[in-house]
Structure formats: structure tokens, C-alpha cells
Amino acid sequence: QVQLVESGGGKVQAGVSLTLSCAASGGVLSGYAMAWFRQSPGQEREFVGAMAWDGGLSYYADSVRGRFTISRDDVKNTGYLQMNNLKPDATADYYCAAVPAHPSWSRRHMLDSEYDFWGRGTQVTVAS
Prior knowledge:
- By secondary structure, this protein is mainly β.
- Helix content is 3%, strand content 49%.
- The protein contains 1 helix and 11 strands, in the order βββββββββαββ.
- The mean pLDDT is 96.
């Protein structure tokens, strides 16, 4: 059973870049599809982006496409969310999630119910 721990959050100014990390233990991350979600105060958790276990497919929410990138370092067994040109509306708690590779993931990648394993989150605050 994989455990996930996010890090890298903080308070930044609008326009800068920030990279979040998702360190995995208890499992090899390359055998899992990985996703990032975020939740702002008073809002529902929303999909940010996801990447297939083989790195061949990536999906992003319209609001972040072109500015956010998901990647993975298999040596470090760690996933990343690089966020460029941050805007104040990116302020949220960010969570990484993972699910073992399976054929239907592509159709359901944006659903939080699709993912079996979750980290505890890291907070990002973007000041204007």
C-alpha cells in the first residue's frame, strides 16, 4: 500500500513558479497513475492534473493547462507538480493521489473517487 507525502507549498507572490513534490513509499510510483487535486476554503476539491503510470498520457484542468506540468522521478519515487505564473486563484491545499494502473483510468482520471491513495496535502497561498 503506497503512502504519499506532499511538500513544497508556501506563500508566494503572483506570477512566480512553485514546484510541489509527492514522495511515495511502500510502493513503486511507476506502477500507479498519479493525480493532483486542490481544495480552496469553502470549495469542493477540484482536479488539477493527472499522469498515467507509464508517463504516456497527461491530463490537465483547463484553468492550469499550459502553466502546470506533472512529472515523475522514478529514481526518487517522487511525483511533481510544477506550477508557473501562479495566480491568486491557485490558493488552495494541494493533494497528490494515486491508483494502481488499470485500463479504465483514462476515462475516470479527473474523478477523486478514482484514486485509492492520498497524501495529507500541502498549502499554497498566492498573494496578489
